[in-house]
Amino acid sequence: MQEFQHLYEKYNEYIYKFLLKLTNYNADLADELTQETFYQVFISLHRYRGDSDILTWICAIGKNVCCKYFRKNPAMLELNALDRERCGHFCFTTMEEMIEQKEFSSKVLAEIMTLNERYRDVLIYRFFFQLTFREISEIMGIKENSAKVLYHRGKTMIREKMEGYFSE
Length: 168
Known about the structure:
Elements: H1 2-22, H2 27-44, H3 54-72, H4 74-89, H5 95-113, H6 117-128, H7 133-140, H8 144-167
């Protein structure tokens, strides 16, 4: 129990900030997911093999908790995307442009989900959660340069897949 208490005290704030980014700065949701993450850490601590840094392992649990939440509550993921759009990531002049952008975003997401897991995870962390390459490398347990390479290769794959989208 003391080992868990030590982990919680040491990493709680870091995991909260990580989940805050993953939830598009929804503080209540990030707090809820942080608690669920540490609950999962508590019941899974006996399975930690030490193959990776403990923080990497806890972040992976946090990512899975977050993904599971958004799978069960897809409307929340859409709301987060809309919040980002409203905050200036996109500028629409008409409702038609907004709908076209939403359709395009859905198509891009569908294509990302078809990629190999490593490319997919890097692209999701970067595009949707705006994590830095350093943060991505820490979460995935890879070098920062590897995260950059995976990102650029994945982006190229998506760009190639999306070329036909514009001619439809």
